[in-house]
Amino acid sequence: MVADIQDGDGPALSRAEAGPSPASPRREGRGPAGDRAPEREAEPKDPVERARAICLRLLTGTPRTRRQLADALSKREVPEEAAEEVLARFEDVGLIDDAAFADAWVESRHHSRGLARRALARELRTKGVDSTVIDEAVGRLDSGQEEETARALVARKLRSTRGLDREKRLRRLAGMLARKGYSEGLALRVVRRALEEEGEDPELLEEHFPGG
């Protein structure tokens, strides 16, 4: 199983990634003769070298999409021409691979969080992955696998809903699946089957699952 990918909405820069900040002068009366605090090592002045250094820091330990890196470079005011040169080079050597990122994201988030194709596609869009790449990645999850995962999710949640009335159980279980991106039809079908297997009367369930 692919290791979980760090979840996040964008390439937020950590304090370490954000690079050096200008040294603040010591307050008068502190330190010898108004000495200034030593400055940190400066980033490369060449825009291309700056872009390369920023991207390498961001890629250390977690994959990033091209859009995430481009946004980070823009926030750091790296000139667009330098940013494009570095991003294209990183793609050429495989350091940026949105298709591989999407495949790993789908596998990891489906297995670790039980997310359905719709939710996975939504997450990948927020990371700037191209719609064609997204379709290919989520398309590797077939409907049978989605339903199997939905049943497992309901089975784990079922016990905690015992003692609630039938309609509340329905809302809670189906709502949990909806939040993970499962369609209403699939959610209702899976919940009804789980309740029937638990011993609920199918005729009574028909009031809440008409035609299910």
Automatic annotation (TrEMBL):
InterPro entries: RecX_HTH_1st, RecX_HTH_2nd, RecX_HTH_3rd, Regulatory_RecX, WH-like_DNA-bd_sf. Residues 51-89 form the RecX first three-helical domain. Coiled coil: none annotated. Transmembrane segments: none annotated. Modulates RecA activity. Belongs to the RecX family. This is Regulatory protein RecX. It comes from Streptomyces spirodelae. The gene is recX.
